[in-house]
């Protein structure tokens, strides 16, 4: 019935999340409200950490891709769990630093890092840059030379795998804005350049094939292409990669139509290909790094809203509009993403009203989810939950329409605490001169 086992129903017919009554949480903190199940975040980290150690050896490390959700307390959890992090901006770097996260375990991504970004990351001691292109390598070399240090670097390359069409094409994804393609020879050129720079220490290569990936063999194919590229660079450039970063992208269950992924099992399959291909190519095994984002935090999140209006248009459709919307969750508006919507305060009522769950913004496209089922009796004041919102919701939230962003409340051991407070009207005008 539920997409994740941290959801349930109590005797009052209320939805529970991480064992806590969502109606009580809404009454205490107000709506809209982001909830995060801390135990679930930790569980997801441990699944990756344990499976990677078991299958890839003790040098393997999962990095939490913090663009999925970034706030100070979350980096403290990552620190406790022995995770590395992938960061994509100085904002994320500074937030991790504020949490006391050891930034030598941070990998800095991005395809358009400014000189200021490069300097900020070096100020903060970011362990490894994932360099996207020649321009960036030049900026890293210049800044590192100025400081008299040698910066560790991975190169982002595109293996030519489209994770969704399920076809192994050598030219597909060559036109990506990210990285340099193996197929065009530009990845090799980037490696030659990196090896020529005295203040750059090349560790290896990175790829990221896509997101919300369920297809059986996407990572197996990526591992195969990347290892063959590494072997080729060894032969042609005399460079032996000590690190292979396979990116993120495992899918999560937004609705019960999505499959259940056994991550540990999947990683076992990827590792079998990894060990076999290394052996075939007589390649010393590089340390393996993965960058899960969504699959660490998505099912640890839930958003609560209060219904504000119910609109029936006979012969057409129905709308239930709530006190949040594309400002706290733009994913349906952006990508037509699917979500599970539940009547949090009346879970035992039959759900017979087919409707669109609409947001409160002045924008026809502000729909949280079309075509959902809610009780016929739904009315203003009722509590509505959208599940699996832990990834790419708070991180993508905006102040469009000058709507303040909701707080993030963490649930832990039957208690709750505010990790990010609700924005106020003063926050909204704080930057206005
Ligand atoms: C977005 C991204 C990730 C995380 O992807 P998920 O689908 O959230 O697991 C990892 N690595 C890179 C480079 C990314 O851009």
Structure report:
- The chain has 433 residues and is an alpha/beta fold.
- It folds into two domains: 7-37 and 298-429, Lyase, Ornithine Decarboxylase, Chain A, domain 1; 109-292, Alpha-Beta Barrel (TIM Barrel), CATH 3.20.20.10.
- The protein is built from twelve helices and 21 strands.
- It has helices at 22-29, 38-56, 72-80, 90-98, 115-123, 134-147, 186-196, 218-237, 263-280, 294-297, 331-335, 425-429, and strands at 7-9, 15-17, 20-21, 33-37, 61-65, 84-87, 106-108, 128-131, 151-158, 180-181, 200-206, 243-245, 287-290, 301-312, 318-322, 341-343, 351-358, 367-375, 383-387, 408-412, 415-420.
- The strands form three sheets. Strands 4, 14, 15, 16, 17, 18, 19, 20 and 21 form a nine-stranded mixed β-sheet that branches. An eight-stranded parallel β-barrel has the order 5-6-7-8-9-11-12-13, surrounded by six helices.
- Helix 2 (38-56) runs parallel beside helix 9.
- The radius of gyration is 23 Å and the shape is globular.
- Residues 65, 67-68, 86, 109, 208, 211, 247-249, 291-295, 391 line the site of pyridoxal-5'-phosphate.
- Pyridoxal-5'-phosphate (PLP) is lined by residues 65, 67-68, 86, 109, 208, 211, 247-249, 291-295, 391.
């Amino acid at each position: 019935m539920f997409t994740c086992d941290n959801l349930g129903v109590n005797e009052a017919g209320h939805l529970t999340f991480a064992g806590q009554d969502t109606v009580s949480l809404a009454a205490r903190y107000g709506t809209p409200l982001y909830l995060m199940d801390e135990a679930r975040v930790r569980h997801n980290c441990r699944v990756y950490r344990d499976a990677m150690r078991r299958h890839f050896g003790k040098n393997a490390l999962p990095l939490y891709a913090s663009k999925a959700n970034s706030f100070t307390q979350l980096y403290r959890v990552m620190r406790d769990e022995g995770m590395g992090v992938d960061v994509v901006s100085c904002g994320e770097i500074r937030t991790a630093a504020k949490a006391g996260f050891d930034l030598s375990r941070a990998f800095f991504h991005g395809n358009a890092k400014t000189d200021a970004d490069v300097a900020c990351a070096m100020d903060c001691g970011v362990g490894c840059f994932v360099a996207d292109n020649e321009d960036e390598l030049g900026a890293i070399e210049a800044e590192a030379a100025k400081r008299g240090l040698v910066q560790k670097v991975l190169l982002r390359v595109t293996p030519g795998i489209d994770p969704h069409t399920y076809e192994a094409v050598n030219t597909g994804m060559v036109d990506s804005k990210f990285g340099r393609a193996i197929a065009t020879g530009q990845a090799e050129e980037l490696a030659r350049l990196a090896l020529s720079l005295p203040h750059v220490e090349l560790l290896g290569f990175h790829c990221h094939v896509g997101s919300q990936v369920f297809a059986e063999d996407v990572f197996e194919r990526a591992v195969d292409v990347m290892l063959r590229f590494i072997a080729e660079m060894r032969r042609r450039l005399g460079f032996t990669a000590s690190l292979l970063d396979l990116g993120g992208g495992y899918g999560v269950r937004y609705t019960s139509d999505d499959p259940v992924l056994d991550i540990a099992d999947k990683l076992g399959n990827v590792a079998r290909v990894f060990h076999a291909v290394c052996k075939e190519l007589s390649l010393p095994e590089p340390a393996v790094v993965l960058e899960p984002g969504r699959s660490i935090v998505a099912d640890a999140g839930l958003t609560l809203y209060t219904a504000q209006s119910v609109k029936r248009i006979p012969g057409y459709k129905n709308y239930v509009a709530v006190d949040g919307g594309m400002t706290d969750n733009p994913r349906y508006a952006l990508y037509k993403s699917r979500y599970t919507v539940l009547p949090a305060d009346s879970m035992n009522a039959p759900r017979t009203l087919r409707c669109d769950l609409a947001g409160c913004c002045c924008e026809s496209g502000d729909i949280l989810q079309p075509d959902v089922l809610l009780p016929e009796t739904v009315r203003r004041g009722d509590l509505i939950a959208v599940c699996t919102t832990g990834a790419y919701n708070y991180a993508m939230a905006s102040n469009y329409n000058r709507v303040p962003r909701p707080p993030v409340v963490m649930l832990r051991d039957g208690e709750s605490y505010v990790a990010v407070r609700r924005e106020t009207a003063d926050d909204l005008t704080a930057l206005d001169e």
